[in-house]
Amino acid sequence: MNFIPKNEDPVVRLGRNYVLKEHELNYPEIPDFKVRHESFELYVKPEQEEIEGVAAIDVESNGKITLDANHFEISAVQVDGNPAEWKYDGRKLIVKVSGKRKVTIRYRVKASQGLRFLKRGEFYEVGSTGEVNNAPNWLPVVNSPGVKCTTEKVVRVPKPYVAVSNGSLVKQWEDNESNYFHWVMDKPHSAYLNSLAVGVFDRYHDEWEGISLEFYLPKGFGEFHKNLSATKDAVSFFSEYTGVKYPYKKYAQVVLFGMRGGMEYITSTHLTWTTMHDEIAEMDFSSDSLVSHELAHQWFGDLVTTKDWSNIWLNEAFASYFQALYFLHSKGEDEFVYDLYRKLQDYLVEYAKYSRPIVTRYYKFGEELFDRHTYPKGALVVHTLRNVLGDELFRKGIKHYLSKHSFSSVDTEDFRKAMEEASEKDLTWFFDKYVYSANHPIFNLNFDGEKVVIEQVQDGPEYNHTIELKVVNRGEKSIKKIELKRVTEVNVEGDYVCLDPKFSHIAVVNDLQEEERLLEEVRDEDIKCVINAINGLTKFRDGKAISALNSLLLTSFWGVKYEAALALGKIGTKEALKALMIRVEPSKAMRGVVKALGEFKFSREAAEFLVSVLEQERSYYVKAEAITSLGKIGLPEFREKIASHFGERSHVDVISTSVIEALAYLGDEESFNFVVEKGVKSNNELIRAASARHLGKFGKKAMHYLKSLVKDESAAVRGSAVSSLGEMGDKSVVPILKEVVDNEDEDGRLRVSALRYLSTLTQT
What's the N-to-C CA distance of the chain in angstroms? Predict the structure, then answer.
């Protein structure tokens, strides 16, 4: 019998509930030939929803090259102008070629998941839509992130269309029918960073230190370029913080109706149309997060790129963390710390389902790794590294990493070595515990007034670094730096203590101090301490705890107000309900109040207060949250009030989609019919997606519609339908989910979602 130390248990190295039987070990795919430069002539035909292309690729090969090209109609392949030997199976194009040669491919390709053609009014919009495997849907390329080369594109479009792509616009001309745009990207980059956007745009221009800042918005929506106003300041901040000036000649942002989220194509980011919003939405919604995240990728992901998808955190975690650092710069420390806290909560939702090391080679689809372990957890690990090293050494390391590996592809070991070289510290322990191991620190904190006991209760490695402990005694505050052990004891006297008051490390802190100490801690000036105390107070139901939480609704930072409101909802007593019957500012905090009221099942008092909020409230998002909570309360007599708000104007139809969700919580026949007629049959993609997401709450009678929605033209709708089918837990959906998994042309994110649900259903 073998003894496995706890720190080496498979749950540490592989994770929990993550590895599936369908998973394989994946290693970097580096071809045995070299691509020097790619030149593309693209004739975009919006009406026909197709592209005619000519690719001229400079290669160096010892016998053959293999290119990724999905569903191309290939008419000719030449080597140095002469007919070539080639084979094509619909996915891989193999060309016989030796030496330094130019391979030319003439082809035609139709619209696909990777290149979306969308008709809006008189004109079409054409746009590439993201990673992992989308570039081969419109370009013949080596689709490995570890392979980089320079590119150029001559794009022909019908008048009056405009074509935007990577790099600099070196030439533009026209003939009687067409406009031509010649874009040159003279820095090497990975294939997935190729972009194309074609449309009729409102265009705006700015400049930062000789860098052209360009903004393209759909025609008629130009006023919303103000939503991207953080761009210039963020370019300046990232250049200064990293010590590496923005490395290209231009930065464009193109807002597209066919785009979900954002995609950091090199020098030409694509942004979802939902980033456009008015002053009312601005009360709750800001584009700064998306703008700064995608911009940060120009350094982390574009300048220096992951060698393979296993190391994708080097792109996504860093962009997520530098977005948070931008918040520290632009919004202040409270916003920064609260942003980190929300990232932790976001990650913990996924952690409840499975855990894995940040870097893992087990997956079936590359998209599986674009999860909350990569984004929010990864960002928090980068934050922890910054605090372990100190800001000065961290910045020195980041500059060294970016400078040393500019225009290259890297793995996590390259990053570790760069940080060690700059800091002159060995970081093997850090990467082993935080990056190559699953799980995270979980601390149980106890204090009796004389002794602090910190117990690490997580599965996985023991964390032994230094952490701060704030001790407050009769108003006097002191900071003690302690060395963590599995169980750490510190003899101090005080009224209360707070572990890691500045939120310097990724960790869950279970604040188990007595109620009186927590009542003192909620008045602390550090919001991380306050939130720790708020979470601790949810164990109590007495008037003192409720009064303390109620006072936070009136006097503190909006994020603290939000968390205090949620805590009152968890407590759930009549006194807690009474404390929540209050209007608070700003609206972001009020969202927490109305959300918490949804916890009071069948409470007419809570429902009537929510109705009064709906009658007086200006914020789209507060109204939407109030409608959802009204549905959760579950009183059928409020159905008409809920339904009356359907169709009300709001940002991204958040009010109408909340009506769909609220009626699904009610779950009766009349609500079901409303969701089907107004939601499932809607021409609005967002409303159909909301309907697909919540139909499963109605049970098996929704199955017929969900089976249809899983084939909807919209990936967002299909994804919502997959989630509903998977969460219903009915094994009859197994064939449907299997069809999604096996569909090689389906959006990779949907295949990943279907695979996980399928695995759960076939194991039970």
Answer: 30
**Strand-strand pairing, 148-158 and 34-45:** parallel
Mean pLDDT of the chain: 96
Can you give the pLDDT at residue 330?
Answer: 98
22 is written with which tokens?
């369908």
Residue 267 is classified by DSSP as T
∠ Cα 714 301 113 (to 5°): 20
The secondary structure of residue 376, as a DSSP letter, is: I
Which residue bears the tokens 């030409």?
268
CA atoms within 13 A on the CB side of 401: 28
| Encoded amino acid at 265, one letter | Y
CA distances in angstroms from 460 to 310, 362, 382, 434, listed in the order given: 21, 19, 19, 10
- Cis ω for the linkage preceding 492 (within 30 of 0): no
pLDDT of residue 11: 80
Q: What is the predicted pLDDT for the residue at 13?
A: 86
According to DSSP, the residues that pair with 211 across neighbouring strands are 208
Q: Report whether 442 contacts 456 (CB < 8 A).
A: yes
Residue tagged 């339908």 (tokens): 721
Residue 183 C-alpha from the chain's centroid: 29
- Alpha-carbon distance values, 187 to 36, 303, 405, 407 (Å): 11, 9, 13, 7
What region, left, alpha or beta, does residue 572 occupy, with left being phi > 0 and alpha being psi -120 to 50 degrees? left
Residue 156, strand partner residues: 43, 180
Q: Reply yes or no: is the peptide bond before residue 741 cis, omega within 30 of 0.
A: no
Compute the radius of gyration of the chain from its Cα atoms. Answer: 27
Residue type, 751: R
Contacts of 415 (CB under 8 A, 6+ apart): 314, 401
CA of residue 647 relative to chain centroid, distance: 28
Cβ–Cβ contacts within 10 Å for residue 68, how many?
18
3-class state of residue 692 by DSSP: helix
DSSP 3-state of 477: strand
Question: Two tokens at 422?
Answer: 């700059």
Global pTM exceeds 0.90: yes
User: Within 10 A of 52 (CB to CB), how many other CB atoms are there?
Assistant: 17
145 in Cβ contact with 761 (< 8 Å): no
| Segment holding 117, helix H or strand E | strand 115-120
Q: Which amino acid is at 476?
A: E
| Contact by Cβ (8 Å): 266, 185 | yes
Query: Rounded to an integer, what distance in angstroms lies between the CA atom of residue 517 and that of residue 539?
Result: 13
Per-residue pLDDT averaged across 215-241, rounded? 98
Residues in the chain: 764
Contact between 94 and 87 under an 8 Å Cβ cutoff? The reply is: yes
What is the model's pLDDT at position 629? 98
Distance (Å, whole) CA 175 – CA 182:
14
Average pLDDT (360-377) is 97
Confidence of residue 29 (pLDDT cuts 50, 70, 90): confident
For residue 757, what are the contacts with CB-CB under 8 A and spacing of at least 6?
Answer: 722, 723, 725, 726, 727, 733, 737
| Distance in angstroms (rounded) separating the CA atoms of residues 156 and 41 | 8
CA 329, 332, 338, 342 dihedral sign is: negative
Task: Read off φ and ψ for residue 465, nearest 5 degrees.
Answer: -80, 180
Query: Residue 468 burial (CB < 10 Å; 0-12/13-18/19+)?
Result: middle
Q: How many CB atoms lie within 10 A of CB 218?
A: 21
Residue 416 · residue 427 · CB < 8 Å: yes
Contact call for residues 382 and 321 (beta carbons, < 8 A) = yes
Q: How far apart (Å, rounded) are the C-alpha atoms in residues 127 and 240?
A: 32
| Residue 17, token pair as written in the block | 């509930």
What ranges in 538-619 are assigned the alpha helix state H?
Answer: 543-555, 558-571, 574-580, 587-597, 604-616
* Burial track 551-571 (b if 16+ CB lie within 10 A, e otherwise): ebbeebbbbbbbbbbbbbbeb
DSSP assignment of 423-468 equals HT---HHHHHHHTSS----EEEEEE-SSEEEEEE--SSPPP-SEEE
CB 108 within 8 A of CB 140: no
